[in-house]
Amino acid sequence: MPLKISALLSGNKPWHRLGLPGWTVSVIAIALLICAPVLFVLGSMFSDSSEVWSHLVSTVLGSYIANSLWLILGVSSGVLILGISTAWLVTMCRFWGSRVFEWALLLPLAAPAYLLAYTYTNMLDFFGPVQTWLRQLFGWTSVQDYWFPNVRSLWGAIAMLSLVLYPYVYLITRVAFLEQSVRTLEAARSLGCTPWRGFFTVALPLARPAIMAGLALALMETLSD
Hints:
mainly alpha, about 0% strand
């Protein structure tokens, strides 16, 4: 009798009537709790009570969103190319210094991303050591005498953040490559796949979840900086 009563009581819960299990409701509640500050900020942008937000919406918000999207797109491409290529090389190839590169490629994680970005910027700026050395070497006197990429730009920020954040993709992707069986690639080679085709059709799809996890970490770090 008590079991029947508890079953009836549990069946009367709203989420059971909607066909949702308890775990799903718990996850949705936690997600809403986490997203509450973001939803509040988004809602306040379009409310009439906040003059600051309305001013931002009418002036600089569009450019901020566009720059953020370009930054996400550029950093995604950069960290994927650097992280996947380096992870594959140090995992599948043996060359002089490969053992050193296995841990040396993680060194950008030893310092905050914004700190390394500022360091790269100061090194490559007009008054930095790189351009100063080039002017002394070739006898250039002003910026009109030569061309050098502008580090203090959107593309400079993409390059700097890609060089700093690629270890997120490298580390997790390398673990995924290490866990893959060599026999899978050997089977692909026996079926006529070239090394490049085996990489793109076998190894890379198997490592896709790890790659996406590393990319998500890199993009969250990008937006936070």
